[in-house]
Structures are given as C-alpha cells and as structure tokens.
Specification:
homodimer, about 375 residues, alpha/beta, 9-stranded parallel sheet
C-alpha cells in the first residue's frame, strides 16, 4: 500500500499535525495545495515549486480533459510525467468547474451534459467518466464526482444534491475499484491512486451530518468537505467543516476544498482538517494583489513607486530577499511577465509559510495563540 | 580603472577571444547580450539569468526614461540595484527606439523631439540628455546618441547622418567627461561607467570608413557598429562590419548592435566583433518560435502534441532537461505564462550556448569549421 496517513500530534483546538504518504512522496499536513489548473501553477516553473517546498499540488480534471485531453496525457505517461512534477498530485473531479465555468445543458442522475468554455463543444461528465479521466491523469489522490450547489440553497435543494452526491460517490468507488476489463481504456497510470469522498449539504448542519455518515459508510481512505467558500460567511463555513469532521473517522485525512484567505487557514485547521487548496495566491498575484504579514498590498499603488523595501519584511522568500516594492510596482505597471512570476512566487510562498507555521504551532500546542496573533497583526495593519 | 579589455586568442578568420572587465564582473567575449528592455529580460527572473550564465545584459534608455523614469531609478541606486542584477549592464542611447518606436516630431542638430508611445507626451532626447539618463541608470557601458537611418538610404542621406552622429558623439563624450557642477543632477551612480562610440554610414563603405575614422579620432574605449540588421542582406551587413573593424583600433571591444540570427552570429565574430545583442530569442519565444540545433521549431504545430522528446536533443538547458515538446506545445496553446517562461529560457540558453561554442572554437583556431558545420546542420534540417 503506497498510501498512508499518520497523525503525529493533536492540538487542544482539535488541529492535527500529520503526514500523508503518497506514491510521489510525503506531504506534511496541514497542507496547502497550490492549484495547477491546466498542468501548470500559473506563473511558476516546476523548479520554483520545488524551491518553494511544495509537496502536493492540485490538477483540474475539467481543464485537462478539454485541453490537451486525458488520453493525450495518459499516452505521455500521466500528469506527473507530462508536467515533470516529482511531488504528489490531487485531481479534482471536474464537478466544480462544470457547475461554475461551463455552460450547463442538463443534469440528470446519469451525469452532467455541458458545453466547453473553450469552443462550445458538448460533453458528458458522469461519475464513471470523471474517474476514467482521473485514472488517465494518474494523480495520487482522485476525487469523487459530486453535485455542487450555489449559496444560498434551501433545504430541499441541498438534500437533493446530498442524495445525488452519495449515489455518484458509490458509482465512482465501484468504477474505480472494479476489476479492469481488457477493453477498458484505463491502463493504470498510477496504480497507487486513491479516491476521496466529498461531503455536501450546503449550510444545513443536518444535511452535512447525513452526507458525512453516508460517505463514511462507503469507506473512503480520505474525505473532503465540498461546497464551502461559495459566498457564505466564514463563521458558517467553519461551523459546517466542524460539523462534518465530528463524524468523519479520525484516522483519515480531511480536505476542505477551495479555501481560503490567509487569516482563515488556521480556522479550518482548528476544525480538524488537514488539506486545503485555493487559487487566490496565484490569481490575486496576477492582479497585483499581494498577501503579506501586514495585510494586503495592492502593488500598483503609487506609494510603492519609490519604495526600496522588500514587499514583506517578515518574509524570506526569493522575491522578498531579492527585489524591492518599487521594482515590483514597475513590473506590474509595465505589464511585464516578470510581474506575474514574482507576484505568484511570493503569494504561494506566503501561503506555504503560514501552513508551515501552523504545523509548528500544533507541534507546540499553541495554535490558538498563533491564530489570534496572526489575526491581530492583520487587523492592526488594516485599520 | 575598473574597465579593461584583453584579447586572449585570435583565430585565423580574424575572430578574437577576449575578456572585458567591468565594475560588475568579467564578460567573456565574443558575448551575446540578452535584451532587458524595461529592466527585465522578458519572461526570465534574474535568478534564471544567473543560472543561464548571462554576464552582461542590455537595458533600454528610451523605455526606462519613459517608465519608471531615470530619476526614479537613480533614487533607487541605479539600474543594477533597481532590478537586482549583479552582472554587467550596457545601456543603449535611446536613439534607435526614438527613430523606430516613438512618433518623431522633429530632428535638429540639437536632438530629437518625439512623442512617447505610451501616452503621447512630448520629449526631447539630445546627446546631453541621453548621457544624463544613462548616468542615472548607471550601466557599466553607455552608448553615444546617434542618428539612425532607414534601409535603403542614399549616399547623401547616410552622409548627413554620419556627420550628425560624429558631432553628437563628440557632445556625448564632452558631457560625460565634463567636471560635474554642483547643480548638475548627475550624482555618479556608477563612477566606472564608460562610453562607446557608434559607427554609422548605412551600406556605403566609404561612409562607414569615414564614420569609423572620425570616431577613432574621438578616442572611445570601445566602438559599436550601428544601423545594421535593418533589412539589408546579411552578406552586406557583414561586409559593412568588416569594413569598419579594419579601421577600429585592435585593442578596443567592438559591438555590433541588434544582431542576429543564430546562424549569423559566427559571421559577425569572424568580422572581428566582440559583442552582440538581439531581441529575437525572447520575442520569438513569446510567439512560440524556438531556436534549436536542428533549425526553427514552431511549437504550436500539431505534430508536437504527442511528442515526448525534449525540444532540442542537443541542448542541455533546464527546459530541454526537464520538459517535453508535448508539454511546451500544450502550454503555448493554453496561453499559459509558463510557455513564455520556458520558451524564453530555452531560446536565450541557445544563443548563449552558440557564443560559448564560438569562444571554444576560437581558442582552438577552428571557427571556420564550427561555422560551416553549424550552417550545414541548419540547412539540412530545413530542407
């Protein structure tokens, strides 16, 4: 068995310090996963990811399916080899993008018919198809195909999505672990690939609990909390995460999908979750919004034009060791590629550094203190 | 004296192996200088430039004057510190860009009145102003402000530009070496900065000789051949370069501005020149045109979609060591930032590698053989 999850320490808050062992190396948890949408974390070379200490990144099934195509990637040896990434990869199921990016045509129990946002072509994504694609990509962790709903969603709508998500999770599991037939196109790119279930239920505690219980019955080696950070208040988001982790088995990794802001990461960890991913560090970087220990910096602001200081004096990343705010502002104003490169590098470094400090705080049983100090510093700098 | 030029070997063809010592390190010659237009070589971090073995790069006076402004850069300690570049820098005079990019308003003996391509604002660039800007930037080598003409230009037009270029060169020299007055804004960013003259004369041998003789009389520590690679046949370009170098003093470095294609570099070296610069490697990279030892590769071509081989099997750069043609094609098709990063990295590596092989060939007295083998390989692969 290539996959292993150990819990090394537990903090009084409920936070867990752990280590996930995958076919592509170990991942210290709680872990932040940069998003490598189309087989690249936008603006960063794989060398930079290694330098940054990234141990696991997320690949998007929807994007890679549409371009360059999963069979293309399978033919080239899978996503790890295709993008020359030695570390671990988690692939999402495509569900979230189909519901948010594509033009949806029809949702049935079978799956979702949608039109590509690239060329308008029509496709069907079903539980079986999602697993088939993810097996071709060969990530270390695959995700079940779930029904993602909007916020707010009433109880009936959320209940429907829970029911369908559970049924789809069962079909994903059955398809993933069915004996491979000779004619089945799924040559095993990564025989060690495992599958996580996804808990839905909107902002309804009873449905979250029901969804979690149904997925636990299906016995996945890991569980995600989906459908959060879609517009609901942060406190409600944490409440849902905590509601779910109370039910999930303690010995399995827990992944909160699509979160969060720097000052929110510790909150999710305190809910007993182990993995997170978010496009914020790279997307905001490209827009000139930089995260620092003193809060947000909009680098195009004229006050930085002559500022010789590093972006974040408490940060030791390559960008903060090497370049000034004035230079970063100039690059952004001049629309230089290097602006995206350096801004993305710093923002990802900043998120990874928070996670590293969170892990250290858990080891010393001081996560609550870390959390309040961090939030106080952000609050002070933004007033 | 911070500046020194030694010739270590001479090849039977007339090529010279040398070493230029600058206030920011040594430069092995013949040298290729990547172009760092606006304080960044497009698509490459300064770390990547160091990794690539870049010893000197070119900064554009015109671009930096307009944005972020030379006084801004002076205030931040000069261009080296502004962009955190430890190696040598040569700044051009702004002449070429004023004549090619800006909307020109009026050329007089005083200088050129032009409108910025960024915002239409009106500016005067004169010999004195160009030196003033270049002193604020603090490059290791500054260039005189010259009159650049189009190709073809008749004898009378070219003769006029030679006359004005010589007069402007004298004014640049006088301004650069005049004792600084207290009210003069030119605090010395780089006291070791030297100034190269620029030979003009279009494609008229007699004018090229006349221009060279006039500039030699002004006694510059180095000389450039300007106004080439503007549309004339390559053979004519080499003929002009050779005509000029016959007259220039042997103990001074010679720089051919704005050249050239990979298969042309050795030709210029054989004309007895020591330095070159060109935007081709980075500009073409962004358009998906890659230079390889087997000729040009248009990476968006569908034949590369499933090609697992490195871009150039004879290249040992980071890109060719790490990524496949299929991945590079995917990145380009998906319009990913990483496409520009990797393509630029390879193309610059390729140009630097040619120069390194040229230096080695000179050391062994085998430049003619290197040259014909290289061109034969390109020709064979393109038929």
């Amino acid at each position: 068995m290539d996959f292993r999850f150990e819990i090394l320490e537990t903090d009084p808050t409920g936070a867990r310090l752990g280590r996930l062992t995958t076919p592509h190396g170990a991942v210290d948890t709680p872990a932040f996963m940069p998003v490598g949408t189309a087989g690249t974390v936008k603006g960063l070379t794989q060398q930079a990811l290694v330098e940054l200490g990234v141990q696991i990144l997320l690949g998007n099934t929807y994007h890679l399916y549409l371009r360059p195509g999963h069979e293309r990637i399978r033919g080239l040896g899978g996503l790890h080899r295709f993008m020359s990434w030695p570390g671990a990869i988690l692939t999402d199921s495509g569900g979230f993008q189909v519901f948010s990016l594509a033009e949806m045509r029809k949702i049935t129990d079978e799956g979702v018919v949608f039109r590509s946002h690239l060329d308008g072509s029509e496709h069907l994504l079903s539980p079986e198809k999602s697993i088939q694609i993810q097996q071709a990509l060969g990530g270390d962790i695959a995700m079940v195909f779930d029904e993602c709903i909007e916020y707010p969603a009433d109880h009936a709508r959320a209940a429907g999505a829970v029911k369908r998500t559970t049924e789809w999770a069962r079909r994903c599991r059955d398809y993933a672990f069915a004996p491979k037939k000779a004619e089945q196109p799924n040559a095993e790119v990564n025989p060690g690939q495992i599958l996580f279930g996804i808990v839905q239920g909107g902002t309804h505690s009873d449905l979250r609990r029901e969804s979690a219980r149904q997925l636990v019955d299906l016995d996945f080696p890991g569980y995600a909390v989906g459908g959060l950070a879609v517009g609901e208040p942060h406190e409600l988001s944490c409440e849902m995460a905590a509601t779910v982790t109370e039910i999930l088995p303690k010995d399995r990794p827990r992944y909160v999908m699509g979160v969060g802001l720097p000052e929110q990461l510790a909150d999710y960890v305190r809910c007993g979750t182990d993995m997170m991913d978010c496009v914020l560090p790279t997307r905001n970087a490209r827009n000139g919004c930089l995260f620092t220990s003193a809060g947000r910096v909009n680098i195009k602001n004229a006050i930085y034009a002559g500022d010789p200081r590093p972006l974040d004096e408490r940060c030791s990343c390559m960008v903060c060791r090497t370049y000034s705010r004035a230079y970063l502002r100039h690059l952004f104003q001049a629309n230089e590629i290097l602006a995206s490169i350096l801004n993305s590098h710093h923002n990802v470094a900043f998120f990874l550094d928070i996670m590293s400090k969170i892990r250290q705080a858990i080891a010393f049983g001081e996560l609550a203190e870390f959390s309040s100090e961090f939030q106080a510093r952000i609050a002070a700098s933004e007033t």
